[in-house]
Amino acid sequence: MNLFLAVTDNDWFRFLRSQAPLDEVNFWRPGGEAGFQALQPGEPLLFKLHSPEDFVVGGGFFAHFSRQVPVSLAWEAFEERNGATSYAEMRRRIEKYRRIPPEPHEDYRIGCILLSQPFFFPESEWIEVPRDWSRNIVQGKTYDTRSGEGARLWEEVRLRLGAAPVAPRADEVAEPVPFGEPYLVRPRLGQGSFRVLVTDLYQRRCAVTGERALPVLDAAHIRAVKEGGKHVPSNGLLLRSDVHRLFDSGYVTVTPEGRFRVSRRLKSDYDNGEPYFPYDGREIWLPPDPRERPGREFLEWHGDVVFRG
Q: So where are the chain's domains?
């Protein structure tokens, strides 16, 4: 297993530590072009403060990376879990790191490294940086947790976490992990990570209409959280906001075979609905990877419980 030791904004860390405990955070990058391939989902990203505070001070477990995310979307999804007290402050930090004057009407594109189950060490438990760490490193460095400095650093982190168990999926029970052994944490997505991940899986377009204007696209839960649904990709669809509202109220649904259905009650209840009936019976667009598509059990639940038929 790998870990990534990331250079971290000191104010970002201190603000989020004051808000702990948190279920997720957005470890954002001010530029939106560069990718991030250092970690697999579940591997740890650790926070290393800027010099002269050369310490490892916490971390989280990698869930997803998204590039070219409008800062407005990042703020709507994570709010203060972006590590800023306000949207205006987050924009000021982006401008500071980009070294640009304020552009009030620019929806900056940023990179978002989404972390689940973040942890923040008190100052008395900060860890010295690895011996092979160079002050010339700008973004971070990957370590193997099975050997050398990576193994030493991960053991120190594990000590502070109390050899925490693997985070289970919603349908699993956590089992203790032998102390000192590297392990993957299955990321438990929060609402913000769910929104960004589903938006990316559907390639930023409505599964029904093909709409690509991000401000009107919603990551919809097929089975609402209040009804026992989870923040998992198989419980998600990317829908235009009007289609989302009709979906939640039961006037439209998606069959387990991936076809869009429109209830006849849409017309009888409102004497309208003409824009939606042309989509009735059409196959929706789904992610190429079958593992990322809606779960049959969620679609069946929506058709049986919510759809007005």
A: 2-161, 202-306
What CATH number does the domain located at 2-161 have? 2.30.130.30
pLDDT in tens, the chain (309 residues): 999 999 999 999 999 999 999 999 999 999 988 899 999 999 999 999 999 999 999 999 999 999 999 999 999 999 999 999 999 999 999 999 999 999 999 999 999 999 999 999 999 999 999 999 998 999 999 999 999 999 999 999 999 998 544 443 333 333 333 344 445 556 789 999 999 999 999 999 999 999 999 999 999 999 999 999 999 999 999 999 999 999 999 999 999 999 999 999 999 999 988 999 999 999 999 999 999 999 999 999 999 999 998
Cα 291 to Cα 104, 202, 288, 296, distances in angstroms: 40, 13, 9, 11
- The pTM of this model reads 0.90
Rounded CA gap, 64 and 196, in Å?
A: 9
* 162 three-class SS: coil
